Amino acid sequence: MYMKTVLLTSNSFRHRYIARCLAAKTDLQLIITEEKSDKIINFSALDQEDRDFQKMHFAERERFEIQYFGKEAFPGNVLELQLAHGEINSNLILESLQGLSPDFIILFGTSIIKTELLQAFPDRFVNLHLGLSPWYKGSATNLFPLVDRRPEFLGATFHLARPKVDAGEILHQIRPELEKDDGLHDIGNKIIRQAGKILSKLLYSYQEGKITPIRQSNSWKICKIKDLSTEKLKKAYENMEDGMIGDYLQKKEEIDAKWPIISNLQE
Question: Fewer Cβ atoms within 10 Å of its own Cβ: the N or the C terminal residue of the chain?
């Protein structure tokens, strides 16, 4: 019998892709979508040049998401509950989850889940974190490594959700299958595509006791959206254009060996 799952996510094309991946291999009973904060795309305080750059960045992000994941909707046979930003911890959500009693609740791209909700379903919240914890935690954690010229820290971390952000025990991690000509948006979408392909398999392996969660060490860098200035975003693009990925790939095996990730699954 398929395991029962619920997805707490947002509503972009990448989020719809992850929903379809879950629906294909598990009994996905409910999709809860939370609107993103308006602050992410509020450029009113920027000058015209920076405003145009930010608009270009987000337009390109959407164009590449469509290229990688298409414009398909969420699975039509799964109930969808739409929320405004900040409503993810409401009593409505708690009662909805209690009524379904899913085996796992997958988090991908929502605001922070509070302790009361986490404690109601111990060890059943699994977070798909885009970034490699504990080195990069928080938000935009596959952008900050590009700013820092540290492509070895690109990837995704599947971990149990805990009250402290991105601090839960790790089930599995992946690094992207990069090519030297990949652009910034190729990298982000490749990571999501890889993560979606293995998500259900990972959940089944964990449910069957084949995976032992690994406790994280201390944080290395906490990333916040407010710290991702236009200047830093431009730096990420400049590093990409400067051949950073090609340079990394030439010594990838040597560099990655210094920062081993947790691998509990044969992909």
Answer: N
pLDDT in tens, 88-146: 999 999 999 999 999 999 999 998 899 999 999 999 999 999 999 999 998 899 999 99
pLDDT tens, residue by residue, 70-84: 999 999 899 999 999
Map residue 160 onto helix, strand or coil.
strand
How crowded is residue 148: how many other Cβ atoms within 10 Å of its Cβ? 15
Distance, in Å, from the CA atom of 215 to the CA atom of 249, rounded to the nearest integer, reads 29
Task: Report the C-alpha dihedral over residues 193, 199, 200, 201, rounded to 10 degrees.
Answer: 100
Which positions ≥6 away from 19 have C-beta within 8 Å?
7, 9, 28, 31, 74, 75, 78
Confidence band for 267, pLDDT divided at 50, 70 and 90: low
Q: Which 3 state secondary structure label does DSSP give 245? A: helix
